[in-house]
From TrEMBL:
Family statement: Belongs to the phosducin family.
Domain of life: Eukaryota
Official protein name in the record: Phosducin domain-containing protein
PANTHER family: VIRAL IAP-ASSOCIATED FACTOR HOMOLOG
Annotated Phosducin domain residues: 71-238
InterPro entries, per the entry: Phosducin-like_chap/apop_reg, Phosducin_thioredoxin-like_dom, Thioredoxin-like_sf
Amino acid sequence: MAAPMDQRIAVPVDDPNADTEWNEILRKHGVIPEKPPSPTPMIEEAILEGRRLAHENRLEGKDLDELDEFEDLEDEEFLNAYRQQRMQELHALQKTAVHGSVYPISKPEYNREVTEASKQDGRAGTGQGSPVFVNLMSSTGTNVESRVLSELFRQAATEYGEVKFCEMRADQAIEGYPERNCPTILVYRSGDIVKQIVTLAMVGGVKMSMLDIDALLVEVGAVADNDMRVLKRRRDAEDAEEERIMAGANKSIKTSRDHRRNDDDDDDDWD
C-alpha cells in the first residue's frame, strides 16, 4: 500500500483559470498549471498598430485633386511630400505608357506581338518580361461574356498604358477552339503563358469589373498592389458599398417607423 504522501488526492476545481485565492494556492503547489497570459494586451496592441498604420497611410492612393482637398486638414510639408510622390508616379507612368489601346492581331502576328513582346523587360533591371494580355474572343455576337471582357480590355488598356492588351478571335488563333470556352484570357510573360482563364465564370461572369482586372494585373506582376490606380478603385468601391449599406439601413429604419406610425393610427381608430 502506498504511503499517504504518495497518493494523489483529487482536488475540486471549478474553474482552473479563475482568479481566486484557492486557485493561487493550487498553482503555487503545482496542482493546476499556471494561468495562460491574457490575450487582451496583444489584441489591444494589434488594434493600436492597425490604427497607427491607417493614420500614416491615410493619403495612400489619392490623386492630386484629392490631395488638394486636404489642404486645410494636413500639415503642408506632409501634404507636399505626397504631392511630389504622386507627380513622380504620374511622370513614370507617362514614360512607360507606350500602348494605350487594345491591339487586334492576326495569327501571323501572334508570335511577334505576344510571345516575343512578353520577353521585353517590363521593369528596368529586373530581367523579367513584360506581361502581355490576350483576349481570345467569341466569333459570334451573342456571347455576352465576350462583349463584357472586350469592353474591360479597352478600359484597362486606356488606364494602364504601360501594359499591352491584345485581342483575337479564338477560332483564328486555335483552329477548332470551342465556342463554349470563350472568352479566354491568356497572360504571357517571358515567352510563356503564366495565367489562363477560360470563360469569366471564376472572375464574376458578366458582372466582371475593373476590380477583377486590377486583381489580375497585380497577380501577374503587371502593376504593384499599391499602385495608385488600384488603390483608388478599391477605395471608391469600398465607399460605394458603405453608402449602399447606409442607404439600406436608413430605408429599413424609415420602413419600421412607417409601420409603427400605421399601427398607432390603427390604435387611434379604436378609441
